[in-house]
Design brief:
Distance between the termini: 83 Å
Structural class: alpha+beta
Radius of gyration: 35 Å
Shape: elongated
Number of strands: 20
Strand content: 5-15%
Strand order of the largest sheet: 1-2-3-4-5-6-7
Largest sheet: 7 strands, mixed
């Protein structure tokens, strides 16, 4: 019998044994055996030996039994009855049965069958001399000859590669890799076109790779050993091959020449979750896995079209978004979960760790995840995790975390609904969000326990089936249907009017007296003794809804006209570009010019810590980003130290920096005091500032800010500090907070060159005189500017140097201001 005629019978025999492997894997107590030994392996090999030698009486060499002689000279059956036994016993899918027929050292038949791959159903890939390469009975046309390691290509790697991802990623770059237990099945997947190459850096036996080698050769590929030499077969079950690098010729050669000793330098990452047996309900487990896989896959698919209009989505994806791919607004890779699914997985791990849903522990886990600086996170979600929960938003953030709760409460929809409401209150306290999550979790809990789709949706509530453990007969009906009805009716929409201050002409003075007395803010003096214009002068004399009136010298008696000329109105909600009502202040006004950069420094009261946890810094940065956008200030650099803050920004309006720092102070101090159970002031008075102009001073101050942690001895390298803008400015990561200054952009038109130049600049030693100049100018409110801008300010009468102490002080001299320009 020829190999081509025997192929169908070989496939049938192998698939029959695969059914036995799969059945034992899903047995309630799991497969027999321990670690890398399974009694079923020997049983399979004995049956295959009889079946194969009956087809072609060749010599038989397998893994479990002794070699058996055959009558056909030069022909050998090389059989691995179960490749991937260790992972199989540990509860992981992806093992395979492989059979090869070798004639005079050349494979003429290869069959690889995976009964239960992790990403698809039973899979059989086969070929024989004189026949076509097939997959599950269907011919396939794979051509590895011209494939290369390129973006989008997949390299199949050993299962342990998942524990050292950084080195493996560098080794296969610019392609990517996927881990799979069986080397035989990895070879078969490459031959079938699912990848460009596969790697085994450890030694393998001939029976491990013979069938895969036959399939690779049929697809136009090659198989190399660790010395990048072509592998030949001797037909001996004892012979070892020093590594296996197979697939497209270019890819296999490149991978074989990689220095795999670099793997020893990367610490091993232990698996987060240990699988095992017994498994009480395999059907429920499969449904639970489907829920989580659906969550991550749907999230990844959705990221490709996020923020795109329906017309554009329909144009690019006429059949719907069905293929995982790179792209999206955040440039995610194919299959990568976004922040929503990352939080869902964080929740699942917290439940597994605590063996229950524990709200405070879940919140701590979310906050720990938040400190990892995810690629994106919704504003409502972020503020909620940091203690600033709002009931206004009806976004779907909490709905994206329902999957783990439904799995955990499988069979008890009422419990799932209660827990979903509690979990949603961590970030989305709007009643509509609570009820939507309750309905969704109740449906998932019923479905995982075995309910039908109609029962999950509540379409047939009176005919509910109740699998064991599903709970009370009408639990799903009592929870799901009322919740859905409430959401649909919008019964929980908050229609209460928002509070607004109302000032009437007749009770003008009374309203002013009722306002809280601002303390510690020189820009808003106490109102209790302020001489307000008479109420009869009308609403134009009254403060704005969010404003306060302050005067320069409250003890001096002045006429109404003189008084009004020295009044400053500070509005918390006055938008940029509004009326300029600021007049003379009690202190020297800060030098602020639209379009000119400003260095801002603010430190904690009594130099005490203003940031105790990473979550504190996240709250600060979140509010800073929002307020910079609101008040039209472009942020170029920042550094959050333990007890002080450095910022560099460019305002579009003169009132921008003061408004940002004022609103930021109010929000953050309120959060900080509530979070850490303290009272009183947090910041040491006003913030200090320094005007910046010219490339020397702008780039020099930006570097000064980014190198703060190094000068303070907190880290040795600026990139090691997570709470500064260095990583964003040097190109190490994308920082959405930053807007590059024109002087920074002028370094180079090429972004990569610009980032490298800035990193090189930060490696240079800082001049002590420049550091002193920055500090002196910042604390003194002096400008660090070029000669041209200096002359303009000097002509305007603007103070450019420190004044003499005392009342009505004058500049020390009328000579030209000192030139602080320093070479960097």
């Amino acid at each position: 019998m020829t190999p081509a005629r025997a192929l169908a019978d070989v496939i049938a025999a192998v698939e029959a044994e695969g059914e036995r492997l799969r059945a034992e894997f899903y047995a309630p107590q799991g497969p027999r055996g321990r670690r890398g030994s399974c009694p079923l392996d020997r049983e399979i090999e004995e049956r295959l030996q009889r079946a194969l030698q009956a087809l072609i009486p060749a010599r038989f060499c397998g893994e479990e039994c002794a070699a058996t002689a055959g009558t056909r000279e030069g022909w050998v059956w090389l059989v691995d009855p179960h490749d991937g036994t260790f992972e199989y016993i540990a509860g992981r899918r992806g093992s395979a049965i492989s059979v090869a027929l070798v004639r005079d050292g050349t494979p003429v038949l290869g069959v690889v069958h995976a009964p239960d791959p992790p990403d698809r159903g039973p899979d059989t890939i086969a070929w024989a001399e004189g026949a076509k390469l097939t997959r599950n009975g269907q011919p396939i046309a794979a051509d590895l000859a011209r494939k290369r390691l390129e973006p989008g290509a997949i390299v199949w790697a050993t299962a342990s590669s998942a524990l050292k991802p950084e080195t493996w990623s560098r080794a296969v770059a610019p392609a990517r890799y996927a881990a799979l237990p069986s080397i035989a099945y990895r070879l078969a997947r490459v031959a079938a076109g699912d990848g460009v190459a596969t790697v085994s850096i450890h030694g393998v036996n001939e029976y491990d790779v013979a069938a895969g080698m036959a399939l690779i050769a049929a697809a136009g590929g090659t198989t190399l050993d660790a010395q990048a030499a072509r592998v030949t077969l001797a037909g001996n079950s004892e012979r070892r091959i020093d590594g296996c690098f197979a697939g497209a010729p270019q890819a296999a050669s490149q991978l074989a020449r990689y220095d795999w000793k670099l793997l020893d330098a990367e610490p091993r990452r232990e698996a987060r979750l240990t699988l095992g047996f017994p498994r009480k309900d395999e059907g429920r487990l499969a449904r639970a896995q489907g829920v989580l896989l659906g969550q991550v896959i749907g999230d990844s698919l959705g990221s490709l079209v996020e923020f795109k209009p329906a017309a554009e989505i329909g144009q690019h994806y006429p059949d719907g978004v069905r293929e995982l791919a790179d792209g999206g607004i955040y440039h995610t890779i194919a299959g990568q979960p976004t922040d929503d699914s990352e939080m869902a997985l964080t929740l699942a791990r917290a439940i597994v760790r605590e063996k229950k849903y524990d709200g405070p522990k879940v919140l701590d886990a979310y906050r720990a995840w938040l400190t990892s600086r995810p690629v994106d996170v919704g504003m409502t979600t972020e503020r909620g995790l940091l203690g600033l929960v709002t009931g206004e938003s009806e976004s779907n953030g909490s709905l994206m975390r329902c999957s783990p709760l439904g799995i955990w409460a499988a069979g008890d929809p009422a419990r799932a609904a209660r827990t979903a409401r509690d979990e949603s209150t961590l970030t989305h306290a709007n009643p509509n969000c609570l009820e939507a999550c309750a309905a969704y979790c109740a449906a998932i809990a019923a479905g995982v326990a075995g309910a039908s789709r109609a029962e999950m949706l509540g379409r047939r509530p009176h005919r509910l089936l109740h699998p064991p453990g599903l709970g009370a007969p009408c639990a799903a009906e009592r929870v799901l249907l009322p919740a859905v009805a409430r959401v649909r009716a919008g019964a929980h929409r908050d229609r209460r009017p928002r509070r607004r201050h109302r000032y009437q002409r007749r009770d003008h003075r009374r309203a002013a007296r009722r306002l809280p007395r601002p303390r510690g803010d020189p820009a808003a003096l106490a109102l209790s003794r302020t001489r307000l214009p008479p109420a009869r002068r009308g609403g134009s004399a009254a403060p704005t809804a969010d404003g306060v009136l302050a005067r320069r010298h409250p003890r001096a008696r002045r006429s109404a006209t003189e008084f009004r000329s020295r009044v400053v109105i500070i509005s918390a909600r006055q938008p940029p570009g509004g009326d300029d009502r600021c007049a003379v202040m009690a202190r020297h006004a800060r030098l602020i010019f639209p379009g000119v950069a400003l260095h801002i420094y603010q430190r904690g009261n009594d130099r005490k810590a203003t940031f105790r946890e990473d979550s504190d810094r996240l709250v600060y940065l979140s509010n800073l980003a929002e307020l910079c956008k609101r008040w039209e200030c472009a942020l170029h650099a920042y550094c959050l130290m333990t007890n002080h803050v450095h910022l560099m920004l460019t305002p579009a309006h003169e009132e921008g920096p003061a408004s940002v720092m004022r609103d930021l102070g109010r929000r953050y101090v309120r959060y900080f005091n509530e979070r850490h159970r303290r009272t009183g002031s947090l910041w040491e008075g006003r913030f200090y500032s320094c005007l910046l102009d010219s490339a020397r001073y702008v780039l020099g101050c930006q570097r000064y800010i980014d190198l703060n942690p190094v000068r303070a001895g907190v880290v040795d390298l600026p990139g090691a500090y997570r709470w500064s803008s260095y990583a964003g400015n040097s190109g190490a990561r994308t920082d959405a907070l930053l807007s590059p200054h024109t002087e920074y952009l002028a370094i180079s038109a090429d972004e990569s060159k610009r980032c490298r130049a800035y990193a090189e600049l930060c490696r240079e030693a800082e001049a002590p005189e420049f550091l002193a100049a920055v500090r002196d100018a910042t604390f003194g409110g002096l400008p660090l500017i070029g000669d041209e801008f200096k002359s303009r300010l000097h002509a305007m009468g603007v103070r450019l140097e420190r004044a003499r102490p005392g009342p009505c002080s004058q500049p020390a001299s009328a000579s030209e201001p000192p030139n602080l320009e320093l070479a960097i």
